[in-house]
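Blackboard transcription, Thursday session:
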Amino acid sequence: MSDLRIAVLGVGMMGADHVARIAGRISNARVAVVNDYLSERAEEIAASVPGARVVGDPLDAIADPDVDAVVLATPGPTHEKQLLACLEHGKPVLCEKPLTTDVETSLAVVKREAELGKKMIQVGFMRRFDHEYAQLKALIDGGEFGEPLMLHCAHRNPAVPPSFDSAMVVRDSLVHEVDVTRFLFGEEIASIQIIMPAPNPAAPQGLADPQLAIMRTESGKLVDVELFVTTGVAYEVRTELVGEKGSAMIGLDVGLVRKGAPGTWGGRITPGFRERFGQAYDTEFQRWVDAVRNGENVDGPDAWDGYAAAAVCEAGVESLHSGRPVEVQIVDPDSIKGFRK
Amino acid sequence: MSDLRIAVLGVGMMGADHVARIAGRISNARVAVVNDYLSERAEEIAASVPGARVVGDPLDAIADPDVDAVVLATPGPTHEKQLLACLEHGKPVLCEKPLTTDVETSLAVVKREAELGKKMIQVGFMRRFDHEYAQLKALIDGGEFGEPLMLHCAHRNPAVPPSFDSAMVVRDSLVHEVDVTRFLFGEEIASIQIIMPAPNPAAPQGLADPQLAIMRTESGKLVDVELFVTTGVAYEVRTELVGEKGSAMIGLDVGLVRKGAPGTWGGRITPGFRERFGQAYDTEFQRWVDAVRNGENVDGPDAWDGYAAAAVCEAGVESLHSGRPVEVQIVDPDSIKGFRK
Amino acid sequence: MSDLRIAVLGVGMMGADHVARIAGRISNARVAVVNDYLSERAEEIAASVPGARVVGDPLDAIADPDVDAVVLATPGPTHEKQLLACLEHGKPVLCEKPLTTDVETSLAVVKREAELGKKMIQVGFMRRFDHEYAQLKALIDGGEFGEPLMLHCAHRNPAVPPSFDSAMVVRDSLVHEVDVTRFLFGEEIASIQIIMPAPNPAAPQGLADPQLAIMRTESGKLVDVELFVTTGVAYEVRTELVGEKGSAMIGLDVGLVRKGAPGTWGGRITPGFRERFGQAYDTEFQRWVDAVRNGENVDGPDAWDGYAAAAVCEAGVESLHSGRPVEVQIVDPDSIKGFRK
Amino acid sequence: MSDLRIAVLGVGMMGADHVARIAGRISNARVAVVNDYLSERAEEIAASVPGARVVGDPLDAIADPDVDAVVLATPGPTHEKQLLACLEHGKPVLCEKPLTTDVETSLAVVKREAELGKKMIQVGFMRRFDHEYAQLKALIDGGEFGEPLMLHCAHRNPAVPPSFDSAMVVRDSLVHEVDVTRFLFGEEIASIQIIMPAPNPAAPQGLADPQLAIMRTESGKLVDVELFVTTGVAYEVRTELVGEKGSAMIGLDVGLVRKGAPGTWGGRITPGFRERFGQAYDTEFQRWVDAVRNGENVDGPDAWDGYAAAAVCEAGVESLHSGRPVEVQIVDPDSIKGFRK
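(Written on the board underneath:)
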């Protein structure tokens, strides 16, 4: 089966990230087409990926026969038209949030997809794929903590661009917690209230920051969200689930921490070497593949490292038997003809 | 540039992991050839990867013109011969530890590679690619903690197979800390001592477990390693660096924790959304690519999720202006013709 | 200067704790008088403390010339009368919360004390004396985190008695966060809202649990408090301060954890042996004093422990010079005439 | 029963701490006599404690009929003579480490006490009274982790006085881990080895720092101790117990953290308000007693704080019923005649 040929529409910061992701870290896919309303930008990004070409019109890119699927990272106002084009051409599309910029057009897109009878749209709420959110979801679904009751969330950015306004705090930041709530609780949100404390003195004039959002789901679960986009600290996203029989917090930079009967707090130890070093193996292989493919020297441990380890282990086994310190015997590398470190 | 065509030799547990890794998570590479001394096993694994075929003899696999590079996951005693074949054919090889099973043959491999004048061998000490070890290395190289003085390590397995003996604790477990020491300190190990406490009552008769290894580097840095392979708990690998101006520990399941002047402990907050959610984006894309390629329904957030988020945010913005709770208006999904959740 | 002679009024669970505290852990004070509306209970508690006697009427206890100060642990409805009596007799009083059971009588007590021109009443909001709250207060007052903006609090009990009702969640639990807010922010609370999610299925019928309280101070700082009294887990009290330049959380069972620029999280290492082992020294001395006073054998480390330590250290110093393992020489304790461990 | 009358011999830094401890934090005891070889220092310290007087000769202080018990904080070389005097006079003595400065005199003291047939000496190994070590001891004795196998310890000081030499690292620092080992394992130490890495460049010339001590107990348990007294960071004392069925670490500034089956790490939540706020209650009472006794204004929450809390709670209960935000009604404090904050 050949690689999935993807058109990436919109290659600003986010779209360019996705191009690099597909080209360098995603298996079985390649960037076939790049499009941006700034043609120079499109050319620049396409040039960075072997086999990618620019198509100047987004609808042409969608319709292109050499495109199997579409990634939409264009500005929100263009989404409706582009999504509908994807639907008409039967092209699966991964659409960065928002789906569209208002409720009516979003509903129109939902309806058209339903009429066509095939799910073709995925929205880029990436937190569902984060391993900590996945753990939280599994904890809820496993039933161990009983009925989920509340979420306490914090969404903090160190800074935002000057153009960021109070409504964008809701539309661009809170929207993630909206999806997290719906994902974790599996039900719709019935009402929402935004409460504004005295603003952060360091926030730009006119920006309501921080905000406290209170959401209530259909069955009465409560979610409170601190939204604070001018902290000056770092990117912090935290979610605490409060359940009938325990609570769990993610986003503390220490893994999922849970509290439960019999009065203990803590986390899970990574159970095996695959979980502990899976990322390391992937990185090792990707870097080795990239170096070999480019004809570069690999920069990982080399034969000398393997030899040195063997020498130490041999001495170690000798010490295991004798109980005494043992000198390690390693040849002088300069004595090896042609050796370069 | 086309994908790197890899021969995987030895597809036991580890080799099979590597086959799945290359096929499903590594970009720009594919498994071209599979080899195993058990031909049925080789067939089974090859069948799981489109485009892979079995080659019955490992040396033939190495020599195969459709093979650009080799992954060696065969038993240690076969490594010497296979590595030398890779060298002769100029095939870059990623060799699972050990390089070879004794010091003399390891040195012979080093010498042959040096004679040929080109680095072609990488050894699978994957910890160098783990992000926590990389952070520790960066901390040392950055000089912030001054001169590194000591490492305290623990290497714990919940259990080992019945065949595991006292020397394998050194050769298979300690070997990783040997490489970690050489990697972090950038110098050779000069002597080693294995000290044995009273054995764990739960360890198999005859297995010296736990062990305490004391290694000293050329410049006099000390490394102590607890080796304990029958803990019954989990896979735990921990390394603490003690430097002139501070200390740092990894492997506590809470990220790198450092202690330093002015008397504080703690870690770094993931600085941005790329670091915090990079894994989520990668997973999102890989799963979307795989689903689309296989003609399956994507299982991520769909158009309805995008619509529902829009409806909540619209109500949120209204509350932002009014300060009051606002009901969220969502249409009945059953009213949408053809809609399926 | 002689010990402060205290009358403890009300010796239920809380008052009895205070009697034991004064008798066994507080220096320069003693329990002179015990009073309870259950005379048998008063006798029982008084009998546990040398030098304490029962006085049957609380107002007589307050007036008693051998009483210098009063601790009030009686039921709330009796507080007003007893506090006014303390004021009339000029007896300083430490009054367990609530001051009185309603706003009018509380104000009447405030007014009477003001008329008399001397502060004589302290209310038992003990969190102000907790070292973690003190650290949070110092952090705010130090100005390092700039303007304080919000508090996120959680107040969780594993269970409450059957008589506990929804209003008691506010009056008995939330009241602590009310005082914490006023203490940390140094201003009054201007408004409050209680929001109720769907109740915990495990909570008694009719009890609104959990609750979410939203308080706003005069200057517009926001405080949200999760109140949850049927968690089944443990006693959890957590407070997170969000400031202009950083945030800090206490009550995680790991000390105060702060986040701030430059994007780090963590805590303070106990800076010296006094802070690290101050509690140990106090406990050591109190237990030694109590044992010696009662003519009991002390149970701390004895002369043999001192001797054994000397023997090990002597061998250690020898190893320091020789670099070799040294056997420790300890005499057979049975060879010592009269020796008992 | 009257207070225990204590003579404190030696009022340098440590002895002066103990005088303040007995006078201000220990119940049922008082400092009756102060002695120091610097008479001015003795006078100064005695003057800080009501009822204490100076006795110029340490043996006279021990013999004094108004002295019930002795605290020895004099230099080590004087201990033997003073301890023997305590024994002869039948005075219980709490002796700061070391018992004496060499093994022979320590043994002589042990023998004399044994001859007299009564335990009168306690040595100041205060860690046995630290709540974290007590938890570790309870964990071992409870048997939950099976047979204890090893301890990994670190003992770090930010700095030491210029007079501190390599042997003092053993005698003054390691000695605590010697006692901890004997306390936790309940057996004697059979051998010891000191290993010296390349010294810390920041350590004074000639000081072997850091050191690594390896101790083996009679039954073969191993203890390794990092001794590092010029870290520049803080006072760090850490102990990790490795047992047959789990491990636990204290001294991380986050409470006791344990790892065990089924592959989890974590700690215990403080189970109730007594454990969580016991220190706060004690501090509250001691500070209130001290203020009242000295005729000072108490600085804890006052009647106004009680009134303000009542006003907020009343509004909270109203909101509980209405579900709406409720304004808090608080009178203007300036309207209260005579009111002072």
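Lecturer's comment: Chain D touches chain A at residues 257, 259, 263-269, 271 (CB under 8 Å).
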